């Protein structure tokens, strides 16, 4: 039926060239049912409802709308009655689809099984990308992962088949690249159980990272709640050129907004500079928006997206988007809560780090800064790929740099690895010669998976504790994230800069001005790379790695062994007893940055993501204890002995004692992993008190029946000592917008009272009372 939309688009174009203009009604496209994806031919894009809702809300608010508002409000459960106020009200939304990566899908599917529902209510997919460890090279690493993770892959495949979820097998690629190639489209509202789900904003969609419990709500057909986001506009002027790349846009923005500057907001890019960026380049920018705490990021629909849709076999989607283009771009005169302007003509290549992705430097300055700070100048390993930078264009630009070095007899002075984003990218860069060029310069092509970006790296060239530098085209560079070594100084930059620095082997190299020495002893300078944004031929899809769910999966058996060390069926958490939480012990008072990597480490712990009790043995092992300045060493309030955090928590749980965690700013930034909320709840925690929370983690804590609370006065953080006992009072009158009191009992018998704020709405208070959001869902089903 797609030709109707193609005809409409052609007719509109023809008429626009004449003196008199006519309106081609969207009714023509209403006759054309266009599938969201060719994997789901009976699930259709519903622009008509989007258009209807946008018109209702625009009339109600009586003002122009940003693009973000159009798509978010266009998915409201009740656009007529929904209260809408940026940064304040909670929206009830109806997402179009759900995507889950294998590490978080385990817990999400275990929760869905617990719900008792027979099938998912919206199109959903599982992507196997997190459990493949980089060790030797692509094929061998993939086979090893299939053998080691056979039980988990079987669980996910059979659960997908039973409950109607599409399953992308190991080796298919990284979730976000697969979504961009197959499922994202302009105007979609997609939630994914990975913090870098915003990658899909590069194709004009609102794609938001969430915890597994949120995904379960949507898969169960329940309206999904999101605090009405503010909108930060980033106006782009000029044009990218030379060594500057899309990655430099987000590295620059991260330096401006910092890791929490985007919290509670959608970053909306606009302006004439947008058209100089490829679709996959826009995806790179949106992807790393997670590092500034943004709810998501988005670009307006344009011809670069149209070109990408057509090249990935979705010309019918492109034609439909052309027809509804006015709803896929911001209204003229719309208001942003904050505006940042970046002139792409003046944007220089950036490199951010170490230890935090918002520490921005120009490549021209990093060598001087590194020398001053005492950071290792020699680059041990350069790594390109990841969900942020693994497109065809990324690989092409890296290969263009490598090809120049090879022409002068130079290879990489550092170790060098390449991670293709998907099987389609791998097959296409093999066919077009990019992969071989990158091998020839000294690179090792890894499996189509996350690999070292998330700590799945069996690194052998250094010992733990050895100070060293790596440069990557990844998105995060928190302490120990890539290789579990706290002394690894990780810097993030573009793939072409990684390649150039890996060839030079030092942070002191500036490819725009510095020379290299060829094998003939002569000096040469690298020219700025140039590469096609899309292959000239069609993409090579490579091996078929997708498993369709059967029409009827009711007879499918899903096996979870009671003796498994990888999988564990969930038991419901206990309900609130109706009383105040009194005399809670402080498990740990955290000093400084505490990301989800600190709370629930990845790397070798990924294998336990489906087993709550086993994964809980990594609870807060990376957090720094304020009392002694050490990681994974806290005082047991009963024995007065210091020991590991998980062991101490288990001891308190065994003794029937509730406990609390006290944290600093932006607690829980980073990954969407809900294990960072499940683990403290499982081991007896009830309250997390901080100066501020990252958005996803705060929601995850609420979903699991915990109380995430913030100091009304951040200075009160200093009033609490690790040996104190805390009581939260006033819970019988727990209500939206009403602060709670915390009584601090000091060992000498004195007491202080401080005020704690919260962001709970009425629905979320019901989660707390029921013990968890899942418990509340079951209560509603019974009623």
From TrEMBL:
This is Aconitate hydratase, mitochondrial. The lineage of its organism: Eukaryota, Metazoa, Chordata, Craniata, Vertebrata. It catalyses: citrate = D-threo-isocitrate. GO terms for biological process: citrate metabolic process; tricarboxylic acid cycle. Keywords: 4Fe-4S, Iron, Iron-sulfur, Lyase, Metal-binding, Mitochondrion, Transit peptide, Tricarboxylic acid cycle. Pfam families: Aconitase, Aconitase_C. Pathway: Carbohydrate metabolism; tricarboxylic acid cycle; isocitrate from oxaloacetate: step 2/2. It is an enzyme of class 4 (lyase). Residues 69-505 form the Aconitase/3-isopropylmalate dehydratase large subunit alpha/beta/alpha domain. Catalyzes the isomerization of citrate to isocitrate via cis-aconitate. One of its GO terms (cellular component) is cytosol. Binds 1 [4Fe-4S] cluster per subunit. Residues 536-560 are annotated as: Disordered. Its EC number is 4.2.1.3. Residues 586-713 form the Aconitase A/isopropylmalate dehydratase small subunit swivel domain. The keyword Cytoplasm does not apply. CDD domains: AcnA_Mitochon_Swivel, AcnA_Mitochondrial. One of its GO terms (molecular function) is 4 iron, 4 sulfur cluster binding.
């Amino acid at each position: 039926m797609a030709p109707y939309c193609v005809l409409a688009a052609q007719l509109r174009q023809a008429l626009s060239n004449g003196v008199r203009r006519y309106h081609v009604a969207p009714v023509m496209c209403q006759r054309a049912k266009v599938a969201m994806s060719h994997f789901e031919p009976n699930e259709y894009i519903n622009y008509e409802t989007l258009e209807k809702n946008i018109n209702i809300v625009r009339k109600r608010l009586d003002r122009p709308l940003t693009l973000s508002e159009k798509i978010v409000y266009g998915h409201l459960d009740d656009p007529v009655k929904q209260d809408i106020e940026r940064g304040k009200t909670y929206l009830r939304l109806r997402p179009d689809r759900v995507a889950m990566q294998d590490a978080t899908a385990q817990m999400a599917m275990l929760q869905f099984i617990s719900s008792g529902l027979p099938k998912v209510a919206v199109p959903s997919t599982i992507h196997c990308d997190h459990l493949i460890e980089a060790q030797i090279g692509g094929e061998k690493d993939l086979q090893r992962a299939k053998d080691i993770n056979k039980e988990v892959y079987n669980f996910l495949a059979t659960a997908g088949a039973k409950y109607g979820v599409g399953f992308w097998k190991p080796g298919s690629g990284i979730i976000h690249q697969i979504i961009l190639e197959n499922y994202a489209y302009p105007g979609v509202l997609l939630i994914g159980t990975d913090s870098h789900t915003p990658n899909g904003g590069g194709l004009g969609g609102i794609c938001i990272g969430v915890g597994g419990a949120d995904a379960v709500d949507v898969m169960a057909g329940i309206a999904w709640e999101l605090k009405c986001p503010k909108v930060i506009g980033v106006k782009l002027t000029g044009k990218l050129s030379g060594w500057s790349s899309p990655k430099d846009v987000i590295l620059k923005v991260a330096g401006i907004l910092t890791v929490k500057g985007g919290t509670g907001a959608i970053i909306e890019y606009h302006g004439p500079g947008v058209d100089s960026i490829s679709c996959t380049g826009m995806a790179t920018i949106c992807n790393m928006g997670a590092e500034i705490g943004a709810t998501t990021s988005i670009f307006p629909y344009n011809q670069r997206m149209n070109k990408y849709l057509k090249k990935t076999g979705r010309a019918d989607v492109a034609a439909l988007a052309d027809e509804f283009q006015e709803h896929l771009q911001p209204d003229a005169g719309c208001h942003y809560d904050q505006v940042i302007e970046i002139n792409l003509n003046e944007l220089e290549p950036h490199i951010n780090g170490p230890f935090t992705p918002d520490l921005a430097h120009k490549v021209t300055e990093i060598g001087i800064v590194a020398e001053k700070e005492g950071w290792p100048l020699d680059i041990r390993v350069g790594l390109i790929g990841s969900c942020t930078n693994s497109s065809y264009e990324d690989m092409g630009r890296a290969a263009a740099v490598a090809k120049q070095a090879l022409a002068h007899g130079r290879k990489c002075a550092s170790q060098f690895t390449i991670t293709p984003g998907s099987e389609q990218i791998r097959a296409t860069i093999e066919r077009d010669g990019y992969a071989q060029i990158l091998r020839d310069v000294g690179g090792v092509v890894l499996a189509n998976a996350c690999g070292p970006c998330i700590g799945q790296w069996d690194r052998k060239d250094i010992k733990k504790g050895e100070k060293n530098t790596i440069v990557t085209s990844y998105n995060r560079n928190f302490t120990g994230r890539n290789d579990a070594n706290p002394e690894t100084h990780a810097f993030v930059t573009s793939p072409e800069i990684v390649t150039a620095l890996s060839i030079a082997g030092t942070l002191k190299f500036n490819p725009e001005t510095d020379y290299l020495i060829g094998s003939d002893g002569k000096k040469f300078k690298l020219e700025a790379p140039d590469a096609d944004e899309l292959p000239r031929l069609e993409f090579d899809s490579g091996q078929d790695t997708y498993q369709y769910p059967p029409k009827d999966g009711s007879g499918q058996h899903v096996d979870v062994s009671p003796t498994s060390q990888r999988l564990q069926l969930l038991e419901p958490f206990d309900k609130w007893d109706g009383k105040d939480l009194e005399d809670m012990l402080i498990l740990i008072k955290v000093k400084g940055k505490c990301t989800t990597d600190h709370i629930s480490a990845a790397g070798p712990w990924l294998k336990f993501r489906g087993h709550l009790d086993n994964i809980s043995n990594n609870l807060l092992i990376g957090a720094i204890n304020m009392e002694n300045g050490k990681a994974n060493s806290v005082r047991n309030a009963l024995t007065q002995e210091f020991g590991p955090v998980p062991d101490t928590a288990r001891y308190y749980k065994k003794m029937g004692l509730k406990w609390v965690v006290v944290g600093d700013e932006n607690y829980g930034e980073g990954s969407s992993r809900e294990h960072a909320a499940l683990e403290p709840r499982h081991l007896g925690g009830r309250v997390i008190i901080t100066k501020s929370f990252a958005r996803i983690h705060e929601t995850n804590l609420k979903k699991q029946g915990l109380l995430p609370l913030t100091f009304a006065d951040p200075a009160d953080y200093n009033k609490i000592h690790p040996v104190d006992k805390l009581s939260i009072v006033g819970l019988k009158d727990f209500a939206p917008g009403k602060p709670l009191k915390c009584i601090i009992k000091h060992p000498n018998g004195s007491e202080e009272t401080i005020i704690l704020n919260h962001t709970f709405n009425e629905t979320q208070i019901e989660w707390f009372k029921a013990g968890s959001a899942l418990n509340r869902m079951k209560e509603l089903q019974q009623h």
